[in-house]
What does this fold into?
Amino acid sequence: MSILAAFSRHVQVVNGGTLTRMTTRARSIGRPPARTATGIGARIRAARTAAGWTQAQLAGESFSKAYVSALENGLVQPSMAALGYLAERLGTTAAALLANDDGAWTRLEADLRLASGDWLEALDAYEGLLGRAREPLARAELLRCQAEALCRLDRGSEAIGPASEALRIFNDAGREADAALAAYWLAGAHYMSDSLAEARTLLRNLIDQRGAGHAIDPDLHVRALVAAANVDSRSGDQAGALALLAEAQTVADGFDDLRRASMTYALASSYREVGDLEAALRHGQRSLALFRAAAAERDAASIGNNVALTYLALGNLTEAARYAAEAADMLERLADTRKLAHVVDTQAQIALACGDSAAAIKLATRSLALAESTANTKAVIDALTTRGRAAAAENDQGVAAADFERAAGLAHERGSKARRAEVLHAWAEMLAAAGEHRQAYELMQSAARPA
It folds into this structure.
């Protein structure tokens, strides 16, 4: 998981089939508009009938047969919690139950797609909605969401414009909490674009606002602390980064279990990035236990992958393989192709560390296919880099060079200077091991220059 994780992972918790987003204030995705209730009811009925279930069977232990009947007849508006629960039981998604027959996007659908990780579809939706938005505050909300989607897709440079405009509008309107969240994503956009000074200033302002008693949500405060630690780490201030992470942990300890699980996950990732592997492992295992207790499987799988990578860095390949296999099995069952691409790449790295370069190539190739199918640029770069290292271990220098070259090109176009430098360093190491010292030196020099 890259150092960009603090920004691209906007905290999500899946609890009992309900996905809740933690923002500076609760996002208004509680219930669909009344005019859509009849259509949703018809889709619930159709899915239930196709599954061969009665209304009582679909209701399960959480709802009553009468409630399901009222939903199917359009007499009540379902909450997002109910939609999530029913969709999971029916083997579909809340987004599918919400979908308009004419395919038109609504704000609710866009928010739901962003919350559930369908970032490309969410981005398309927000861009369509922006074309029709006229009221400034409504436009600012859409711009902020657009910036978040772009950051999640590792397209930080494209997110600077919408995030900046959203921040300006919210500030002009005195919407402090909304402005804070826009500032957070603007900081993320600058961080991904290697503008560390701008990112640091925005994050420090957010942290200082909370200390001065402004209306900054505690969740956002912790995320700002973690993100600021990543900025300090990339700038070489490891002591400052560790101090910020310790402060974030103190605040997060006061949260409820699910929020604490999410924040502890972010802390585990950041501790691994600053090199404190023991702290990363401790926080990762704690977060994993909390998410497992809450039956939040997607989050548990992501954390399991993080723990696997930490064990890999510590050289404990047995535990690394175990955690990665558990995460992969979970994501396979959930059909979460996007996240699975990252876990399969972790398995490829583990195979390579075990000396099985042939297996590493197969796994990295699978990771690449999964990543390309979901337009996951970060996972594409990771898979290419891993496969390049594995091909070099097989003495197939031509394939290795092609993979590294493509990875470096993607990192240059869609990633950050730091990401590009990581790829070039790995490429240089491969060349040096093959005795191509001059080319390795040139790549190291290129990695040190601005992208």
